[in-house]
Amino acid sequence: MKHKTVDGILDRALMGYDISLAEGLVLLKQTDPEAIAAIRMTADKLRHTQASDTVTYVINRNINFTNICEQHCSFCAFRRDDGDVGAYWLDWAQILEKATDGVRRGATEICMQGGLNPQAKINDKSLPYYLKLVETIKQEFPQVHLHAFSPQEVQFIARVDGLEYADVIAALQDAGVGSMPGTAAEVLDDEVRRVLCPEKIDTATWLEIVSTAHKLGLHTTSTMLSGHIETPEQQIGHLEKLRSLQQTAINQGYPAKITEFIVLPFVGQEAPKPLRRRVGRDQPILNDALLLGAVARIFLGNWIPNHQPSWVKLGLAGAKEALVWGCNDIGGTLMEEHITTMAGAVGGTCMEVETLQMAIASIGRPYQQRDTLYQKV
Ligand code: SF4
């Protein structure tokens, strides 16, 4: 039977109020099909008012420039030590070749992230290496939007070179970085992070770096790695931290903010065994990801209107389903994806524009190409 409290929460959300942490938790804990259907419908209605019926997509190309990484996140099937089978580190010509291929295929965005490779230095410094990555692409393609380097990569550069986060972000921005991927957030809860990514930045540092980016005028995205060891309390706590981060950016009048929220369900197939065993499954549970996405729309939508599923993690059919659970964007073509594919994801590594458009049209919604910052193309 549908809980009366659920109706009350959903009614308040439809009236435009922000729901509280406790209310978000009630929604996340629902198992009754009728209640879940009502949550889905509310998320879908809010998506309509907060973001319209049009489903957007971006033509982008991923470049993961190295998988050599000094860290050992327990979910990561991508990382290698130098010299391991499958370890790679692209040289400048290879990076330029991939960027050229992306632009030739219509990409407005290059998304660039990589492992934390201690050898990636120029004159024994990390920042000049990263600046050269940016310049390699921007010199050739100044019009392309470079969506690059997670908060973890910013901290890595700052740590290696003994710099402030603001110095690193400003230098990357000056060189031509257009926005920062809000990855490495995983779950913003230090208890979860101790298991998932003990060497990564803690919650406070992630929030500090993203807020610094906003202050400096660099837009970011936001993400959540879901469906592993985290509890509903930790999930809603994560959403609450993102919401207040965005409220700070908006209320303080910072020149940039979070442009979108993406749920990234955990794919365990090729992940290191301990976490895979603990989670006990290889592929994400679609229904869990859909409910979380719907609650995220209800919880965050007043502040972050753009919500995106991950077709890499859920497959195109799952991502399409998410469009009626609160999502208004289907993401990018990517053209090449290593991180999740090496984890055993079924979604594939490249999506043709026509395939994305057909998926959107098949649910009776209009589609529109956008750029990284959600302007029409
Ligand atoms: S998730 Fe990133 S930081 Fe963690 S091990 Fe993998 S590549 Fe390294």
TrEMBL record:
[4Fe-4S] cluster binds at residues 69, 73, 76. The keyword Oxidoreductase does not apply. Keywords: 4Fe-4S, Iron, Iron-sulfur, Metal-binding, S-adenosyl-L-methionine, Transferase. Its EC number is 2.5.1.147. Its cofactor is [4Fe-4S] cluster. Pathway: Cofactor biosynthesis; coenzyme F0 biosynthesis. Binds 1 [4Fe-4S] cluster. The cluster is coordinated with 3 cysteines and an exchangeable S-adenosyl-L-methionine. GO terms for molecular function: 4 iron, 4 sulfur cluster binding; 5-amino-6-(D-ribitylamino)uracil--L-tyrosine 4-hydroxyphenyl transferase activity; 7,8-didemethyl-8-hydroxy-5-deazariboflavin synthase activity; iron ion binding. (3R)-3-methyl-D-ornithine binds at residues 150, 310. InterPro entries: Aldolase_TIM, CofH/MnqC-like_C, CofH_family, Elp3/MiaA/NifB-like_rSAM, F420, FO_synthase_su2, rSAM, rSAM_sf. The keyword S-adenosyl-L-methionine applies. Residues 55-302 form the Radical SAM core domain. The FO synthase complex consists of two subunits, CofG and CofH. Catalyzes the radical-mediated synthesis of 5-amino-5-(4-hydroxybenzyl)-6-(D-ribitylimino)-5,6-dihydrouracil from 5-amino-6-(D-ribitylamino)uracil and L-tyrosine. HAMAP family: FO_synth_sub2. Belongs to the radical SAM superfamily. CofH family. This is 5-amino-6-(D-ribitylamino)uracil--L-tyrosine 4-hydroxyphenyl transferase.
